[in-house]
Amino acid sequence: MSSDSIPRHVAVIMDGNGRWAEGRSKPRYAGHRAGIGPVRETVEHAAKRGIARLTLFAFSSENWGRPQDEVSRLMGLFHEALQREIDELHANHVRLRFIGDRSMLRSGLRQRIADAEALTAANDGLGLNIAVAYGGRWDIANAARRLAERVERGELKASAIDEAEFATALSLTGEPDVDLLIRTGGEHRISNFLLWNLAYAELYFTDCLWPDFSSREFDAALAFFGSRERRYGHTGKQLGVA
Ligand code: FPP
User: Fold this and answer.
1) CA 28 to CA 19: how far, in whole Å?
2) 82 alpha carbon – ligand 1 mean position (Å)
3) Which helix (H) or strand (E) holds 10?
4) Out of 3.40.50.1100, 3.40.1690.10, 3.40.50.300, 3.40.1180.10, which CATH number does the structure's domain 3-135+180-226 have?
């Protein structure tokens, strides 16, 4: 695979944990726990393939509506995984960033997230973004409010708000747009993930349930990406590819 066919930014909706567990007559949280191995493998593989940014959807704004026990176990799992993996991520030069509404998280997890971000802030390897308590509409509404506050304070003119200025107020400020979105679990939806950043992403859907996702599956998604012609609204002829 040539380096220009490698996406700079890959985003993943990790779906299918519940069904994976139910298919084995196990409780749903067993599926979430089984999803940690593929997270690890995906992070390692992204670094190996030279991908610059990887953004994983771990918990959506809507997931708060799940049964209390499942939510609580998922939060416990994030806390535990972060505690266990942070040293190795740091040793591998990964820069970790969390996006989402942190005010919704327990203070212990919030603190661990802040510590992990501070520890890895200067790393120059893979940029790993984890979306927790995240929603694309929340992100856009948040950005609009931040910009409006700057206008109210007289720091910004309303007429200066264009796409580039707007993007500075989003969670993934300064990050390249998503090139490739992978969704496991068979659904063909974006489910309120990075609505702004996915504008020109290639979309790859697989029936593979997240706990079964592997570097082989990841390579299949990368091969799909490599076969796509990206036109950004232009014609193939204009871009010299047709
Ligand atoms: C969706 O599957 C998955 C989640 C809501 C949680 C994702 C969490 C992990 C993969 C655990 C590890 C993550 C990190 C970042 C350490 P689902 O429950 O909606 O599955 P279903 O569609 O089969 O019900």
Assistant:
1) 8
2) 15
3) strand 9-13
4) 3.40.1180.10
pLDDT tens string 128-156: 999 999 999 999 999 999 999 999 999 99
Taking the whole predicted model, whether its pTM rises above 0.85 is answered as yes
Query: What's the 3-state SS for 103-136?
Result: HHCCHHHHHHHHHHHHHHCCCCCCEEEEEEEECH
- Give CA–CA dist 64/34, Å, rounded: 21
pLDDT in tens, 37-61: 999 999 999 999 999 999 999 999 9
| Ligand 1 proximity of 81 Cβ (cutoff 6 Å) | yes
Q: Where are the domains of the chain?
A: 3-135+180-226
Ligand 1, from 210, 212, 214: best to mutate by most atoms within 8 Å of Cβ?
A: 210
Question: Is the Cβ atom of 134 under 6 angstroms away from ligand 1?
Answer: no
| Residues 148, 48: Cα–Cα separation, whole Å | 41
Buried b (16+ CB within 10 A) or exposed e, 137-169: ebbbeebeeebeebeeeeebeeeebeeeeebeb
